[in-house]
Design brief:
mainly alpha; 0% strand
């Protein structure tokens, strides 16, 4: 960018600029901290599934943002949203099994809810962009 060009202050140049990705990364950290106290016998079971679902969320946001087409980005956000629902379900299972308390999982569930709202908003905005450009085949 030369000195005559001005960059919009809110322009996204990397997936790291997306607040939803940043929040999803915070969710991963919270999930790993919470699952550290799970029984050792669950290391390859529910613990692993919860961690993989959590990691999948920011990973799919990043991969989608790196794609060349808005439609692909939106598709990856849908995958991230699916992983988020999977994570929420697994967190509820961990409460039911007594691996974590409602309070401990509640912080992760609250963050998951926030990430979900942000994903939904971004999916909606991208859908409108596709409709405006005439590239939507939904």
């Amino acid at each position: 960018m030369d000195s005559g060009e001005k960059r919009k202050p809110d322009a996204v140049t990397s997936y790291r600029d997306l607040v939803v990705w940043q929040k999803a990364m915070a969710l991963v950290s919270a999930v790993y901290k919470m699952t550290a106290a799970f029984p050792r016998s669950e290391r390859f079971g529910l613990t692993s599934q919860i961690q993989r679902a959590a990691v999948s969320i920011p990973s799919n946001i990043a991969e989608g943002q790196g794609r060349l087409a808005t439609k692909e980005f939106r598709q990856f956000l849908g995958v991230a949203r699916g992983s988020l629902k999977e994570l929420e379900t697994q967190l509820l299972i961990s409460i039911d099994l007594g691996y974590t308390s409602q309070e401990q999982a509640g912080a992760c569930l609250d963050l998951a809810d926030e990430v979900g709202r942000m994903l939904n908003a971004l999916i909606k905005v991208l859908g409108k962009k596709l409709v405006r450009s005439g590239n939507c085949s939904e």
